[in-house]
Amino acid sequence: MASEKKASVEILARTVEEAIDRGLSELGLRRDQVEVEIINPGRSGVLGFGAEEARVRITALPEEPALGKELPQREPAVAESLPEEAVEPATESVTAEPDVTELAVNLLQGLLERMKIHAQVTARIGDDLVEEGEDPPLTLDVTGDDLGILIGRRGETLRALQYMTRLMLSRSLERWEPVVVDVESYRVRRRRLLRQLAARMAERVSFSRQRVVLEAMPPHERRIVHIALRDHPDVTTKSIGEGEHRKVTIIPK
């Protein structure tokens, strides 16, 4: 019989999402099998705030949860052979209730106005941001002129904007609500470019029989590469490195 898993862990990380990913990995559980308590949301240093690590407590749920207890949406299963960031979907499923959708749009629109950025926020279901068979997330699209400032280097500012929107929404709802924020379809375009890059590098590895190491990427982007190549006949993938320097390596079989 397998050894008993830990019941609860507290994790410190740069962001809440990264802390949750690490905690799930340490517990060996999926997102729908745990309860997440955000002890300290942390600060990323964006918009003038000082940097501060996020702290979360992740507790394993019992096998048969008590009736009436609110649980996160169940996420689709992904092949166990994938690396850890490929097992845990980068976006979580969301039931786009009308009140949640309207509140999310208004919060992000208000944040942009306070930043003196002229842009329009619209809501949709992000079918183009998930793999086949996964539940699409509630997505807030930001459109306007000269919005590169909201994307930043390799999408860093966009990730911070998304985190702040999630934090405001979750505090209003008193539960964590993982909406996705996109600016001028950056996430959609980035997803397409990563899949194309994965295909090109896989062909290079197949021909040369030499491994290729890609640039450092956040977990959800590494997952896109892993999934794009998971059924490739000639190569396999593996993540190496730590934290922000973690990279995907494409290896000949």
Layout of SSEs?
Blueprint: E1 8-13, H1 16-27, E2 34-40, E3 43-44, E4 51-52, E5 54-60, H2 84-87, H3 98-114, E6 119-125, E7 138-144, H4 156-173, E8 180-183, H5 186-208, E9 212-216, H6 219-228, E10 235-240, E11 247-252
Parallel strand pairs: 7-8
Antiparallel strand pairs: 1-5, 2-5, 3-4, 6-7, 9-11, 10-11
3D structure, described in words:
The chain has 253 residues and is an alpha+beta fold. It is globular. The protein has six helices and eleven strands. The protein folds into three domains: 1-62; 98-184, K homology (KH) domain (GMP Synthetase, Chain A, domain 3, 2-Layer Sandwich), CATH 3.30.300.20; 190-252, 2-Layer Sandwich (Ribosomal Protein S8, Chain: A, domain 1). Helix 3 (98-114) packs across helix 4 (156-173) and helix 5 (186-208) crosses helix 6. Strands 1-5-2 form a three-stranded antiparallel beta sheet, covered by helices on one side.
